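== Protein entry: sequence and backbone fold ==
=== Local backbone shapes as whole numbers ===
==== Amino acids and backbone structure tokens ====
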Amino acid sequence: MIKKISRIFQSILILIGLQSCGDINTTKNFENGQKNLVVFSDYGSKTDTIIENVNEEQIKTIMNKINWNNYHMVYIERNIGEMIGVLGLLKDDGITPPGLTSTWDENGKMLVMKNDPKTAEELTNILIAYLNDDKNLKNKYE
């Protein structure tokens, strides 16, 4: 029951976060499989980083710089409306209880990871798997 409530709460936070995100000014150039990374903080109200045509080393560097004791959202977009996101925080900030999750957005449908990640390293691995078109990754979402 608690896990179910937690998943509902996380889904609500995801939707609030996505709605509060401002306009993202990237070139939206997705030729040749280009993927763009965007980092939001402060529950989506602040865009911290945009990297066009992101690579694995850049993902590792950015993810290592994020203080996951504060709420962050990191998305990799491969086409308009097709992206993966990792989000949450590791410690209660007085607004949100701790928890991490990942979403897969495709063709207007949002899927949530079946088993929530527990560490920032797991979040990084999810993004790298998406970047590298890991065919098994999508099976971890419902």
